[in-house]
Amino acid sequence: MQVAIPLFPRFTALDAIGPYEVLQRVPSVEVVFLGHRRGEVRTENGMLGVCCDATFDEIQAPDVVVFPGGIGTRVLLEDEVIRAWLTAVHPRTTFTTSVCSGALMLAAAGLLDGLTATTHWGAAELLNTLGAHYVPDRVVEHLPERIITAAGVSSGIDMALRLVELLFDREAAQASQLLIEYDPQPPFDSGALAKADAATKARAAAFQRSRK
């Protein structure tokens, strides 16, 4: 089973690596990082590079697509190569998914028209302009349409565990969860917009502005 994770300049590392860590634990899963060209792609802050081992032209029939987000998605919204690739591969995928603002790319390709979807809260308004209907849920499934979207960054791990369950079975998902020792016990309870106080939201906004 082949899982394709597109990479692009200024992607968010955990959006891609979180699902990768979950999915690659299953022996029959092959995860391929792909992009416009082979070679290293740097994350949104430039501190980390991840290698694309294939191009979009080389991966034409993935079983699963996991499209990560990051500030770089805004530049890609008019990228005809990616939009055409998503439109071409989606009819044959088992699931086409996104993490964080990767949902913007699914929407730009017309895959979320009229559907509810989630993304990072900072991209919610933009997602609505692209034909989807944002909801502040951690994972949103449309199984008949074979579409799953995950909210910001860390939610990609949750979505990937659900994917393993859907693709294989519950025990496989639980085994993957155990292997990565995913047992969240955060020291703070500010991981969702509805839970964060005003000061935390202001600091988060300042951090976000510094990355643009």
Automatic annotation (TrEMBL):
<feature type="domain" description="DJ-1/PfpI">
    <location>
        <begin position="2"/>
        <end position="165"/>
    </location>
</feature>
<dbReference type="InterPro" id="IPR029062">
    <property type="entry name" value="Class_I_gatase-like"/>
</dbReference>
<dbReference type="GO" id="GO:0006355">
    <property type="term" value="P:regulation of DNA-templated transcription"/>
</dbReference>
<dbReference type="Pfam" id="PF01965">
    <property type="entry name" value="DJ-1_PfpI"/>
</dbReference>
<dbReference type="InterPro" id="IPR052158">
    <property type="entry name" value="INH-QAR"/>
</dbReference>
<protein>
    <submittedName>
        <fullName>DJ-1/PfpI family protein</fullName>
    </submittedName>
</protein>
<dbReference type="InterPro" id="IPR002818">
    <property type="entry name" value="DJ-1/PfpI"/>
</dbReference>
